[in-house]
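Supplementary Data S3. Sequence and structure tokens for construct A.
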Amino acid sequence: MSEVTRWVDTHCHIDAPEFHQDLSQIIARAQAANVEAILLPTVRSSDWDPVKKLVNQYSKHIPGLVYTLGIHPLYINQAKESDIDILKVQIEQSLCDPRFVGIGEIGLDYFVEGLDPQRQEYFFHKQLDLAEKFSLPVILHVRRSQDAILKALRKRKVPSGIAHAFNGSRQQAQQFIELGFKLGFGGAATYDRALQIRRLLVDLPLDSIVTETDAPDIPPAWLKHEGGGFNEPALLPRIARQLADIRGVGSEVFSQAVWSNAMQALPRWSALAAVHSNPSVVS
């Protein structure tokens, strides 16, 4: 009997308000779809403790359920400079938690209007400094800000991470890869008009690609044709199979590659997965 394909969602906000009433069902559907690992990035300081509790509560259903701690650029207007000191303490306290795998979601957003670029840069750079201090990977928000983020990364020794929802140029992609980063792809690639993203999926090395939903955001194209609804981690396998088709590889090969890539990007995640692995065949 062939091994069941397992999937990894490297970016999923299952703590979002859209999921509060149905979270148990959301988790159950993900489990039934063989989504064995989900990364939950935080976006503001008020999320940090609730997310830790959520991950602990549902980890028995999704053995690879993990989290990162960070301040998202879209939430900087709610943040205080003292949150950086609180984040440092949170990181120190979480290092003994195997489900804590890095810092994120952090970055820069030059698309949304009304965000002070200097304030964004303050929080981003301070969080990168913490990543360097604790030698932790980062989950990056890189909307129309790839070059600025690359410049900041080159000034520090951040070990690795993921550039989430990547939609930059081939040259920018290569620079992230050279810095040890993987690139996240999800529902955006399922739209016929997403020509640049699809070209990247075809052209980039397979060992640079990871899968994500960004649920409840970035829904796949078919949702609006099938009655709508929120994006959720249970949709990851279908999204990933479309990505594999675009890439021109089988879904099993693709699954194995993106799993390996995600674990390489976030070594603490890999260590957790190794502990929870349970081979069905013993030689």
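Construct B, processed identically:
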Amino acid sequence: MSDHGHSHGAALADHRGKLAAVLGITLTVLVVEVVGAVLSGSLALLADAAHMLTDVAGLTLGADRCRPGAPTRHPPGPGLSPCRSPRCRCPGRSLAGRRRLRPDRGVKRLFEPPEVASGLMIVFGIVGLIGNLIGLLILASGRSANLNMRAAFLEVVNDALGSVAVLAAAAVITTTGWYRADAIASILIGVLIIPRTIRLLRETIDVLLESTPKGLDLELVRQHLHALPHVHDVHDLHASQVATGIPILTAHLVVDDTCFHDGHLGELLDQVQACIHTDFGIEHSTIQFESVDHAAHEHATHE
């Protein structure tokens, strides 16, 4: 049991380290592209920076996912919504801050395209692409480890596509002088942001409300646990995704009184956690064993 915990913890630490490294690279490229957008007048570079800002939120959530049992940033409660404090770092605020980076600016430029320094676009686009490629190399070895790492890898792939769009627009402007290419590229990049932004908002709401993970049937979990040897009853069964992407399950199991005297609880705990992991893919759980006599004194509202 302890070996599994240490090895799993080490794997999570390794994944979190990779995500943190890619997050640092993405933030650096984001700043560089904003500077490039100002110097070149390119809306495509600015849109790509906004795209990276979306993925910064995603990578930040990803790093949190690699902390088992990481606490939520706000206590759960009815009608909870992301706070509006200027010091708040919750993802919902970051997403809301991107409302100013709108695709309609690209539409306006289609009709009144300003001059754009395509040479600078190429320079900063290459910097962005190199940063994306480095991020992909860092994540490549761990992208099959879990859904979280795969999602992070795909986010960086999308960033790379944004940089490619910037470079393509710059090449068109350089060779043909058709400045509308910058606006078209910015619109395409803006469209790429929308699905990811919606997905992040949904994930943020689920985390803040500590929702039961989608696709997890708690009644089925209860049945599987109840079917284990020596288990009389299962109550106070709850599952949440306090750390996004890593379901956490808690349960009280009423077991034979003899289990507390014959040293059988350790083996039973192994069986319970193996059942939860094998049948439902849940690696993190907190199990409380109770004797039959104790169950009779439990509060009536316990289920």
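The chain has a mean pLDDT of 75. The first helix runs from residue 2 to 40.
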